């Protein structure tokens, strides 16, 4: 032993029962406290769960209502493009009737699967509902209550890997909603050069949807991934930088676009149901 040193007293590890689960299993750091956080760590996952539950409840009601989704010239983003024969006549909107008379359910059920799949598999939304609903984990530095953890390596969570393909499907949906927003510059008779409050609502909604879609991690990888030298690809590097700026605000854009699409649908519902008349600016 070197001169001037004091022998250290070995620490006695906290005993861990063999029945312990998760982070309490033998071999993990022995910490007696459930967690060391003193803030309200439970508040963000609670707010997230309540917000997502509210949107799920509202969108489910609207999807199965099968009514009040078109008020000329506005169409709800939940029902566009209208792919079924039982759609309301949209007078020039994205009304394609690709499915025959055999489809008797709400036409929204044919459309929502694409944006819903894109958002469910989104990297941010995974974090949000994993924490909010499954407590996996409930917050940073807070142990999850599950006995085992397999990540996204088994069914059904391994299906999250199809997110990149839903990104390709989300692009045409955003394009169609852009077309619907442009049609908002008509009056109820189809004449151009008019705009109302609904026009502004649809424009804000599609702007946020495009920002959220392009801020996607898959989009960032497609634009700038698999490149060894950015200097040889200046255009892709510039696009990668722009997408990176949006990607840094992915959480904000995810919530903003989720709220805006609900507001846009609710506005069309109010006008179509006769709750009030759309104010026209010019």
Describe this protein's structure.
The radius of gyration is 25 Å and the shape is globular. The protein has a two-stranded antiparallel ribbon with strand order 1-2. The chain has helices at residues 43-65, 108-111, 113-120, 123-134, 163-183, 197-214, 217-224, 234-247, 250-272, and strands spanning 70-71, 74-75. It is built from nine helices and two strands. Helices cover 46% and strands 1% of the residues. Strand 1 (70-71) and strand 2 form a beta hairpin. Mean pLDDT is 86; it is low at 12-16. With 282 residues, it is mostly helical.
Tell me the radius of gyration.
25 Å
- Which residues form runs of ≥5 with pLDDT under 50? 12-16
* Category from helices, strands and their pairing: mainly alpha
Basic shape:
globular
How many strands, what sense, and barrel or not for the largest sheet?
A: 2 strands, antiparallel
How far do the termini sit from each other? Answer: 90 Å
Oligomer category:
single chain
Name the descriptors.
single chain; two-stranded antiparallel sheet; 282 residues; 9 helices; mainly alpha; 2 strands
The gist of it:
By secondary structure, this protein is mainly α.
Write the layout of secondary structure elements.
Elements: H1 43-65, E1 70-71, E2 74-75, H2 108-111, H3 113-120, H4 123-134, H5 163-183, H6 197-214, H7 217-224, H8 234-247, H9 250-272
Antiparallel strand pairs: 1-2
């Amino acid at each position: 032993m070197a001169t001037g040193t004091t022998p250290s007293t070995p620490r006695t590890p906290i005993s861990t029962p063999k029945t312990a689960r998760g982070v309490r299993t033998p071999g993990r750091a022995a910490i007696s406290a459930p967690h060391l956080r003193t803030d309200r760590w439970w508040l963000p996952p609670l707010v997230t769960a309540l917000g997502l539950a509210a949107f799920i409840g509202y969108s489910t009601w609207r999807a199965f209502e099968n009514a009040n989704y078109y008020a000329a010239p506005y169409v709800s983003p939940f029902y566009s493009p209208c792919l079924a024969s039982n759609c309301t006549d949209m007078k020039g909107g994205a009304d394609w009737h690709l499915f025959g008379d055999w489809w008797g359910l709400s036409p929204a059920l044919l459309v929502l699967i694409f944006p819903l799949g894109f958002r469910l598999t989104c990297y941010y939304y995974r974090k949000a509902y994993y924490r909010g609903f499954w407590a996996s984990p409930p917050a940073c530095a807070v142990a999850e209550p599950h006995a085992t953890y397999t990540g996204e390596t088994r069914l059904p969570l391994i299906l999250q890997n199809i997110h990149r393909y839903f990104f390709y499907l989300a692009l045409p949906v955003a394009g169609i909603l852009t077309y619907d927003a442009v049609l908002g510059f008509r009056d109820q008779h189809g004449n151009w050069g008019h705009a109302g409050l609904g026009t502004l609502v649809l424009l804000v909604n599609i702007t946020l949807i495009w920002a959220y879609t392009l801020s996607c991690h898959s989009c960032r990888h497609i634009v700038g991934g698999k490149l060894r030298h950015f200097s040889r690809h200046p255009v892709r590097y510039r696009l990668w930088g722009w997408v990176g700026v949006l990607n840094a605000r992915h959480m904000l854009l995810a919530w903003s676009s989720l709220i805006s699409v609900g507001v846009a649908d609710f506005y069309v519902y109010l006008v179509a149901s006769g709750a009030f008349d759309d104010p026209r600016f010019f």
